[in-house]
Amino acid sequence: MNTEILGLPRINEPAPAFDAPTTDGVRKLSDYNGKWLVLFSHPADFTPVCTTEFIAFAKHQKEFSELNAELLGLSIDSTHSHIAWMRNIKENFGVDINFPIIADLKMDVAKAYGMIHPGAADTSAVRATFLIDPEGILRAMVYYPMSNGRSIPEFLRLLKALQTSDEHNVATPESWQPGEQVIVPPAKTAKEAEERMNSDEYDCTDFYFCKRDL
Fold first, then answer.
1. List of E strands, the chain
2. Which of 48, 105, 152, 174 has its Cβ near the most Cβ atoms within 10 Å?
3. Which of 29, 39, 49, 50 is an active site residue?
């Protein structure tokens, strides 16, 4: 079994620590204490799919910031390559890349986060995205194939959903958006189930499936 896959991080456990050079200087996981971190990898600089993703992340950066979230990119390319690519995006697409990009030449961060998938590419990090909470806990991770770009609005939606679940102790249904009903935890007793089914506070289909407004 491949050792990189064995190192795959796990949801609701501490995210792997890192200390890495970036286009904004050295960054550590601890630098983001108190904030959400969206850490995302891309296979290589100066590639078309990655370029579209970086442009989209940049265009949504303010929205992430309003949710107390920072963006941090990564590939195994050098800092010089990252800077040249950032300047190229500005020149050709008119978009400023204002978030740092890790230069992971030794693949230390990529391996720690399970970004190296030999079936996809031997020397490139796949398209992986990790949402890490203000306490440094990994809350979500999503992997995409080399050939297909990610939907950045989906990560914004997921971040809002995670923050809502944390604040209100609820779950969110498929494609949930802020302002829609949330799912409450199942009743723990028969009495609670009966009360919930007869309550105006909840919108229940059955005792185990109840929604409510926030």
1. 19-20, 27-28, 36-41, 69-75, 101-103, 127-132, 138-144, 182-183, 203-206, 209-212
2. 152
3. 50
* Domain region containing 120: 3-150
For 11-56, what is each residue's pLDDT tens digit?
Answer: 999 999 999 999 999 999 999 999 999 999 998 899 999 999 999 9
Who's near 76: CB < 8 A, 6+ residues apart? 44, 104, 105, 107, 110, 123, 124, 125
Length of the chain equals: 214
Flag whether 143 is in a domain.
yes
Is 133 within the bounds of a domain?
yes
**CATH assignment of the domain containing 196:** 3.30.1020.10
Question: Which amino acid, 65?
Answer: S
The pair of structure tokens assigned to 93 is 């697409």
Q: What is the pLDDT of residues 139-179, one digit of tens each?
A: 999 998 888 999 999 999 999 999 999 999 999 999 999 99
Q: Is 50 a catalytic residue?
A: yes
- CA 114, CA 116: separation in Å to the nearest integer? 6
144 and 174 fall within a common domain: no
Q: Does the residue 156 lie in any domain?
A: no
